[in-house]
Amino acid sequence: LPGFNFGEFVTNKKHADLILMAIACNVTGSFWSTNATDKACLELVMRAGQNIDQMREAHLEENFTWFQFTSKRKRMSTVCSGITDAEFGYPKRLFVKGASEMILDCCTHFIDENGQRQVKTKEGQTRILEKINDYASKALRCICIAYKDLKEGECGVKHDHKDKGDILYAIEKSGLTCIAILGIKDIIRPEVPDA
Question: For the segment 122-139, what is each residue's pLDDT rounded down to a tens digit?
């Protein structure tokens, strides 16, 4: 795949690293064996010149915790390890990706253009929603990627506590930090317009 200057889109290295790790470690399968959405996300990482397998080796333990995407949950989450800059000194971080408005509602913070974590105010929420609406007006499918630094034992030893009957895991419901909104273009197959 041809390279491109990821720095044109994300000017801060810390922010860029968060985006790329959030994608590489929270997508199932390889570029050749996954769905169209995950393939588009992985292509971004590959075009940025990153090695997906190396990132996964560094941050996914053998029996890592992950919560698969379903049409009801509208999100996928993965607990990564080996996080050296974790907020609480515990080296695990949850990455979440999914339907933009639903994930954004679970976010209390966002990463700004300087790579700094900021409290999500009403003004910040409005700016992000404007970007989502702008992407949607261009027929792009919007995906929000977010993270949460974990505390040891938070929501159980494997961080997988879920209340009975709930479709979401407790760990992914709140306190997230929005990393980015991705706009994904669905390529229309040639036979679709005639159909």
Answer: 998 999 999 999 999 998
| Burial (Cβ within 10 Å: 0-12, 13-18, ≥19) of residue 41 | buried
With helix as H, strand as E and coil as C, how does 58-90 read?
Answer: HHCCCCCCEECCCCCCCEEEEEECCCCCCCCCC
Read off the pLDDT band of 191 (50, 70, 90). Answer: low
- Residue of higher predicted confidence among 147 and 183: 147
Q: In what order do the strands lie in the sheet with 107-111?
A: 66-67, 75-80, 93-99, 140-149, 176-185, 107-111, 117-119
Contact 143, 37 (CB under 8 A): yes
pLDDT of residue 1: 44
Q: Which residues contact 149 (CB under 8 A, 6 or more apart)?
A: 83, 86, 87, 88, 90, 92, 93, 94
If phi > 0 it is left, if psi is from -120 to 50 it is alpha, else beta; for residue 169 that is: beta
Q: Are strands 117-119 and 107-111 parallel, antiparallel or unpaired?
A: antiparallel
In the numeric block, the tokens 């980015």 are attached to 180
